[in-house]
């Protein structure tokens, strides 16, 4: 479960950065819509999966609601899931 959650966190962070750093400029500056749609769908699916896994993981580990809120907020910030992985998930066995 931990490996899946960490992988999802990293992929969600990469998709977030790709969406805002690569495909949105293509969409608005170069009028190329397709990459934004594809990466946007992927990011949406990864975001939903990340939140579901955060709920399940926090419940299994009996972590507080505060830790879940921190994981959730991390998903809303650029580089946030990388920070959450490093701070909360990396040292777990």
UniProtKB/TrEMBL annotation:
<keyword id="KW-1003">Cell membrane</keyword>
<dbReference type="Pfam" id="PF12823">
    <property type="entry name" value="DUF3817"/>
</dbReference>
<dbReference type="InterPro" id="IPR023845">
    <property type="entry name" value="DUF3817_TM"/>
</dbReference>
<feature type="transmembrane region" description="Helical">
    <location>
        <begin position="68"/>
        <end position="84"/>
    </location>
</feature>
<dbReference type="GO" id="GO:0005886">
    <property type="term" value="C:plasma membrane"/>
</dbReference>
<feature type="domain" description="DUF3817">
    <location>
        <begin position="2"/>
        <end position="88"/>
    </location>
</feature>
<keyword id="KW-1133">Transmembrane helix</keyword>
<feature type="transmembrane region" description="Helical">
    <location>
        <begin position="7"/>
        <end position="26"/>
    </location>
</feature>
<keyword id="KW-0812">Transmembrane</keyword>
<protein>
    <submittedName>
        <fullName>DUF3817 domain-containing protein</fullName>
    </submittedName>
</protein>
<feature type="transmembrane region" description="Helical">
    <location>
        <begin position="38"/>
        <end position="59"/>
    </location>
</feature>
<keyword id="KW-0472">Membrane</keyword>
